[in-house]
């Protein structure tokens, strides 16, 4: 297993660690623990960094593999979906945003499964990467803002996070539409 694939696996393994800290933070509640919010943000940021590193290393060192094309977006989805679920629980991300993200991911996964049945592997496109980066930045903003913002600015943190989440929903829909349009031939063959 090459280094980019190991980084992808590390990202997937960081998901449960992130989930523990996110679950313990209790943002917006009387028993809010800012330190857990910071730890969740740090773990999420570290995991997000592996996304940047694995792709760059794979391309620069010509280490792109079918496993990487499959596992990299899967690890991204595991990480961002877990975070969005906790943000819905915290009341800063509307459930519709999460549903749109999940619908897009199911549709893309369906196209990839059809392609795989035809011995084709479809890598993520630029719009999927834009969507993922926006998701990751929104999530990082939220967890760090929970830690650094004064207690009396919880409403502002929530509002800004909600706005960013709706921007994520728009980018998700756009990237899904472009992905399906660009790969429609896989569906038609």
Tell me what the structure shows.
The chain has 189 residues and is mainly alpha-helical. It has a single domain (3-188), classed as Four Helix Bundle (Hemerythrin (Met), subunit A) (Up-down Bundle). 81% of the residues lie in helices and 0% in strands. It is built from seven helices and no strands. The protein has helices spanning 3-25, 34-60, 66-89, 95-117, 126-148, 154-182, 184-188. The longest helix is centred in the last third of the chain and has 29 residues, at 154-182. The chain is globular, with a radius of gyration of 17 Å. It starts with a helix and ends with a helix. The relative contact order is 0.14.
What is the element layout, followed by pairings?
Elements (H helix, E strand, L loop, with lengths): L2 H23 L8 H27 L5 H24 L5 H23 L8 H23 L5 H29 L1 H5 L1
State the gist of this model:
With 189 residues, this protein is an all-alpha fold. The protein has helices spanning 3-25, 34-60, 66-89, 95-117, 126-148, 154-182, 184-188.
For this entry, give a set of tags.
189 residues; mainly alpha; Four Helix Bundle (Hemerythrin (Met), subunit A)
* CATH topology descriptor: Four Helix Bundle (Hemerythrin (Met), subunit A)
The assigned CATH architecture is Up-down Bundle
Spans of 5+ residues with little confidence (pLDDT < 50)? none
Structural domain tally: 1
Residue-averaged pLDDT: 92
Number of helices: 7
Helices and strands, in N-to-C order?
HHHHHHH
CATH superfamily: CDP-alcohol phosphotransferase transmembrane (TM) domain
Overall number of strands = 0
Question: Class by helix and strand content?
Answer: mainly alpha
Please give the radius of gyration in angstroms.
Answer: 17 Å
